[in-house]
Design brief:
Keywords: Decarboxylase, Flavoprotein, FMN, Ligase, Lyase, Magnesium, Metal-binding, Multifunctional enzyme. It is built from five helices and 14 strands. It is α/β, with parallel strands linked by helices. Bound molecules: cytidine-5'-triphosphate (CTP) and calcium ion.
Length: 227
């Protein structure tokens, strides 16, 4: 094998992975964020790369570094993430592992908001962000395989099953992010893979191993589709 020429079951395939949180600015020094570290999305991207895929890794401001050997596109907001995903199309598969902020601040100020002396906090006006997973699942250039994640604290399976249908994606990797699991910011993940064939609970595994397994499943699926 020549250096730089990918080999493996995903050689010649392009996969888009979103990862990390998004930051939604309030003013130049403040933003709304969430506790995503980007660890799971990073592990999925590394798993896909190891199987030979060309990976476009669209990442918000994560705490873990992006994996080597993928094309990194850094974004901050949900709107920027959506635009970057659109630019990266077409793809053979898309894995939306980012913890996209559900809302953005529409009253964001381009100057630092100051206390006005009244003792009253500023009222932030917010709007719902574009749903990147739902959009790509119905896009004209929809990748043949679209995988979403579902971070839930209650009724994990029921919520993930509903979410899969509502979003129009093929698979949902449902993860229990209840504080007691330590998943948010932790090194392990407890997931259920929900497909059109039902729900497949995986044992609690290191996030790297979840990434490897998911990449292997994607390779398996795309291999069958081509053959
Ligand atoms: N997602 C997305 N764009 C958004 C919100 C979510 O692409 N604006 C994707 C996530 O990357 C994930 C999936 O949708 O793959 C599910 O995210 P989740 O937050 O669990 O679902 P929501 O539809 O936002 O529902 P809620 O947070 O209310 O449970
Ligand atoms: Ca959400």
């Amino acid at each position: 094998v020549l250096p730089g020429v990918a080999a493996g079951p995903l050689a010649g395939r392009h996969v888009i992975v979103t990862s990390g949180p998004t930051h939604e600015p309030i003013d130049p020094v403040r933003y709304i964020a969430n506790r995503s570290s980007g660890a799971q999305g990073t592990a999925v991207a590394a798993g896909l790369r190891d199987l030979g895929a060309r990976v476009t890794f669209v990442t918000g401001p994560a705490t873990v570094p992006p994996p080597p050997g993928v094309q990194v596109v850094r974004v901050e907001t949900a709107a920027e993430m959506r635009a970057a995903v659109e630019r990266a199309l077409p793809a053979d598969a898309a894995v939306m592992a980012a913890a996209v902020a559900d809302w953005r601040v529409t009253s964001a100020s381009d100057r630092k908001i100051k206390k006005d002396g009244s003792g009253r906090p500023p009222a932030l006006e917010m709007a719902e962000n574009p749903d990147i997973l739902a959009w790509i699942s119905r896009a004209e250039a929809r990748p043949p395989l679209v995988v979403g994640f579902a971070a839930e604290t209650d009724d994990v399976l029921a919520n993930a099953t509903t979410k899969r249908l509502r979003k129009g994606c093929d698979w949902i990797v449902a993860n229990d992010v209840s504080p007691a699991t330590g998943v948010m910011g932790g090194t392990e993940n407890s997931v259920i893979l929900v497909t059109d064939r039902g729900a497949e609970p995986w044992p609690q595994l290191p996030k790297d191993e979840v990434g490897r397994r998911l990449a292997a499943r994607i390779a398996d699926h795309l291999g069958h589709e081509a053959g």
